[in-house]
Amino acid sequence: MSDFGSLLVIIAIAAATPLIVGLFRIKVAEVVLLLAGGVIFGPHVLGWINVDDSIKLLSELGLGMLFFLAGMELEPRAVRGRSGRLAASGWGISMLLAAGVSLVLSFAGEVQDTLGVAIALTSTALGTLLPILRDAKELNTPFGTYFMGAGAWGEFGPILAISLLLGAQNRFVAILTLVAFGLVALLLAAIPQRFATDRIRQLLDSGHHTSSQTAVRISMLLLIMLLAVAASFGLDVVLGAFIAGIIVRRIAPPSEESNLTVRIEAIAFGFFIPVFFIVSGANLDVQSIADNPGRLVLFFVLMALVRGLPQFFLYRGAIPNPRKRARFSLLVATALPIIVAVTSLEVETGIMLPQNAAALVGAGALTVLFFPLIGNSLVKKLPPEPAVDQDRAENTA
Question: Using CA of residue 161, residue 162, residue 164, residue 165, what is the dihedral sign?
C-alpha cells in the first residue's frame, strides 16, 4: 500500500477509536485499542499498513511528543522532598530486582539481552497515564504528586540507563556524551530567558489568538532541536523530548502555559501520538507471541512484581490506605512507551531477540489494559482525595 494509503488507515483508526470508546462505553484506555488496531491492520494480519521510512518518522515524532508532554506536565514538587526521595528509592530497588531477574533469565537461556530486559521492567508509562489522572482531577492531590514523582523516575531513570548502558559501547564516552548533551540543553534553556523581553512576551501571548501561533512554533523548534541533538550525540531521542518538555514548562509564563499546553496537546493527541501507538501495534510480532504466550505472561507478571510490588511496601507511610496504595503500585507498574523505545533500539542492533521484544511490548500493552482497570476497581467506593494548593503540596511532598 502507498504511503498515503497506510497513513489513511492509521488516521482512520485514530479517529474511530474515541468514537468506539464513547459509543460503546468501553472501560479501557484508548491506547489499547490503538495498539489493537495496529495489530489487526498491520503487516502481520490484514497488511493494510506498511511501515516505511515516512510512517516510521511520524511514529518517532509521536513518541517524542508523548515524552515532551510528560516533561511539560511534570510538577517540580513531585521530584523534590519526600516524594522525590521515595520515587528515587523505588526505582533503584526495582532496577536491582530487574537486574537480578534478568540475570536468572539469561542463565536459563530465555534472554540474551539482560540490560535491555532489566531497563524495560523498571519503566512507568507516565506520559500515557498523566492525561487519565488529569481528567479525573487527581494531579493536584497528594496521590497525584506521589505518582508524578514515581512516574518521572520510571521514565527518566530508564532513559538515562538507555543512554549510558545501551547507547554506546564505551561507558566513559557515554557519560561524556550525556554531560555534553546536558550542557547543550542548559544553553538552550537559558537563551529564551535571556531574550524574554516584555515585547517578546507580548508577541507570544498575542500569537495564541492569531495564525502565527508563535509559542507553539518555538516549542516545536525546541523539541525538534533537542531530538536532533540527542540523535547526533548517539542518545535515545526520548531523552531530548523529555528535557524539551521540562524546559518549556520552566520558561513558559503561567498565563501562557495553559494556552500553550492546550495547543500542543491538540497536535500531539490529535495526530502524532495515535500514530505512534498504532505503528507500535503494527510492528508487534504477534506470531511469535502466539507461538510462545508463556513468555508474554512471564514478563507481564514480572512487571507487577519488579516495578509494582516494592512500591506497595515503600509507600506505606505516604499512602496509608492499602487499596489506594495497591492502585498506586499498579499504576507505577504500567509501562509501554519506554519498552517500545528499548526493544526497538535493541532489535535494530541485533542484541535483543525479536520474540523477547514482542513479548515485552505485548506485556506492556497488557499492563496498560489491566493495571489501571484493576486499580480503579479497588478504590471505586472510596471518597476522592481533596486537591491541595501548590505551596502546601510543595511542603508536604
Answer: positive
